[in-house]
Amino acid sequence: MEAAEQRRKRKRGRHILLSLSSSRSLFLCSSFIIFILFMSSHHRFFLFFFNFNTATLLRPPLALSLLYSSATSNSILDPLTPLTSSTPSFTLQHRIQFPNHYLLLLLTNHHINPHQLECVYYYYTNASSSSSSSGSTEPLVIEVQPVLSTDRFDESRSIARCPFPRTNGTAVDLRRRGGNLIRRSSYFTTNQTVVQSWEKGVYEASLDRESNTVVVFVKGLNLRPHKVSDPTHFRCHFGFKNLNKDGSFLITTRAVSVAQEVVRCLLPQGVRNNTDRAKGVGVTVSHLSGNFRHPVRTILPSIARIDGKGKKKRGKYELCVCTMVWNQGSALREWVMYHAWLGVERWFIYDNNSDDDIEEVIQDLDSQGFNVTRQVWPWIKTQEAGFSHCALKARDECKWVGFFDVDEFFYFPNEFHHQLGQGGGLPGENSLRSVVANYSSSRSIAEIRTACHSFGPSGLRSHPKQGVTVGYTCRLQSPERHKSIVRPDLLHVSLLNVVHHFQLREGFRYVNMPEGSAVINHYKYQVWDTFKAKFFRRVATYVVDWQEDQNKGSKDRAPGLGTEAIEPPNWHLRFCEVWDTGLKDFLLSYFADPVTGLLPWDRSLL
Q1: What is the pLDDT of residue 295?
Q2: What pLDDT does residue 558 have?
Q3: Is residue 316 a contact partner of residue 289, using CB atoms and an 8 Å limit?
Q4: 3-state DSSP call for residue 319?
Q5: Which tens digits make up the pLDDT trace of 298-309?
Q6: 398: which strand partners?
Q7: Considering the entire predicted model, what is its pTM?
Q8: Which of 471, 475, 456 is nearest to 580 (CA)?
Q9: 290 and 398 share one domain
Q10: What 3-state class would DSSP assign to 542?
Q11: How far apart are CA 297 and CA 294, in angstroms?
Q12: Could you give phi then psi for residue 546, rounded to 5 degrees?
């Protein structure tokens, strides 16, 4: 009897445990559903992650996919300094090696003063590793150098540039000036010297709200220049902060166009109805290689996050200008002020690692009402991609965008030779804006091309004090190349360009400006001290640098010039076939101060 009673008790106990287990499972399930509903009501974007096709999920190696490495990165705060509300925090995300410096990408909401930080170079030793009680390696600092410069990169990130160390084989990092070397997280403990090459990887990404696509800028695809490529072998992969701390990508979409360094992909389905959700999302690109039997999909390292800026404005500027510069602060005032008089209303200056006073010059011009902004663009040999980026960025603000350099000046011979206009207006004022406005209503014209006349040193041995438009007056007889003003809303989906012009949408064409009505004075071959800066680096992707022993007969080189920055004999007399003082005479007649003789860009410096 007692045995039977004990069996009944054990059976009843099992029923109770099963009941409790079922109740607990039901409670956990209900709690999870409530949590999902809560998140969806407050963050609808959360539901997006549960709707993707798991077959498209791609998980590359961690070292190549740190779209959001802040989860496993290191703070450059001195560990001995207490963190206060007034102490800005920084998180190192990426190290990128360029030909002559390191670029370190930092996550921070604060402006970084270069004097706050210093570059630290170190290596790890087995002895220090074995002596560590925790078993982690300890750095041996062997060199410290000042930070070269800092810049704000986007809304949440900044960059710091460090020189190369004097000792090879060392890692680079940052610390507060005079502080201790930073402590390291688990990721950087096992990957102390991870440095990404500038020659391979995804470096920028821009949202195109009109087409529900993202335009991604990539180095290392090695595609045919000046051609649209087959997009079927390319994919974009999206990663989302805090949901992929292991570096994996959650969503994959197909590419719709590929050309040179620009890949355009569809946005993930879950964000197309509200593209603001894509802002700040990490993205990379993969491409298919190998053969039919053994295809290999290669995913590229990435530092890119989707830039969510750029909403349509109610009204657009008639004419804007975009250019890419390196150390051209001294040339900007003349170029901007002159073209403002011709009718340019907005300037996009893409700064390619300048270390002169260009930032102060741009701020000063903007404060004077010239509507100039500086776009930090640290990526070298990317002029074509930069122009594609600018065309997309300017589309929401501008009807027409001109792409030309700061040594190129539009000149209207017929307009400038008229007498003073009625009401005291200067002849030729707003001429450039009037030209493009006449084509704004055209149903077929999407690009205006203007021929360039190349000017030489004109006998000068030092930079002209009143500017290039007055100083250089002798040029080659025949024009060289052209530059373009385009309708950014009518460009080909690939944004393909060759610097001088863009590929247009099907059904649209370009028009050439007659030389008698408009030309560009290109002050290309300036005095040697100015010209030799070109030997540092050419900004265009597919143009060989001057110091490389290739394509010596190319039109992109100066005739008779070698691969070294050595002044040729009689440089100051070269490239002089026709004396052309038309623009100089006009400016001195109508723009110079009658008492001092100063031009507007000279007076602005007083």
Answers
A1: 86
A2: 62
A3: no
A4: strand
A5: 999 999 999 876
A6: 317
A7: 0.82
A8: 475
A9: no
A10: coil
A11: 10
A12: -60, -35
Three-state secondary structure readout of 341-383:
HCCCCEEEEEECCCCCCHHHHHHHHHHCCCCEEEEECCCCCCH
Given the structure tokens 């507060």, which residue do they identify? Answer: 176
SS3 16: helix
Amino acid code (one letter) for 504: L
DSSP code at position 420: P
Q: For the chain, how many structural domains are there in total?
A: 3
- Residue 593 sits in the same domain as residue 482: yes
Report the Cα 360 to chain-centroid distance in Å. Answer: 20
Q: Which two tokens stand for residue 536?
A: 């540092």
CB 299 within 8 A of CB 64: yes
Average pLDDT, the chain: 80
Residue 68: predicted pLDDT: 32
The answer to whether the CB of 213 falls within 8 A of the CB of 267 is: yes
104, with CB counted inside 10 A (0-12, 13-18, 19+), is: buried
What tens digit of pLDDT does each residue of 384-414 get? 999 999 999 999 999 999 999 999 999 999 8
Asked whether residue 44 carries a pLDDT value surpassing 50, the answer given is no
Q: Tell me the pLDDT tens digit for each residue of 562-602.
A: 667 788 899 999 999 999 999 999 999 999 999 999 999 98
Question: For residues 148-182, b (16+ Cβ closer than 10 Å) or e, as one string?
Answer: bebbebeeebbbbbbebbeeeebbbbbbbeebebb
State which residues form the domain around 387: 317-603
Shared domain check, 211 and 180: no
The CATH number linked to 266 is 2.60.40
Dihedral angle computed from the Cα positions of residues 146, 151, 152 and 157, in that order, rounded to the nearest 10 degrees: -50
Q: Which residues pair with 208 in a beta bridge?
A: 213
- SS3 sequence of 189-254: HHCCCCCEECCCEEEEEEEECCCCEEEEEEECCCCCCCCEECHHHEEEEEECCCCCCCCCECEEEE
Last residue of a domain, one of 307, 330, 345: 307
Query: In this structure, are 157 and 299 located in the same domain?
Result: no
Phi first, then psi, for residue 50 (nearest 5°) are -100, 5
Chain-centre distance for alpha carbon 387:
10
> Is residue 513 helix, strand or coil?
coil
* Span 197-230, pLDDT tens digits: 999 999 999 999 999 999 999 999 999 999 999 9
How many whole angstroms separate alpha carbon 404 and alpha carbon 548? 25
Across 519-533, b (16+ Cβ under 10 Å) vs e yields bbbbbbbbbbebbbe
Could you give the 3-state DSSP secondary structure of residue 424?
Answer: helix
Sequence-distant (≥ 6) Cβ neighbours of residue 179 within 8 angstroms? 78, 80, 81
Phi, psi of 430 (to 5 degrees): 60, 20
Three-state DSSP at 24 gives helix
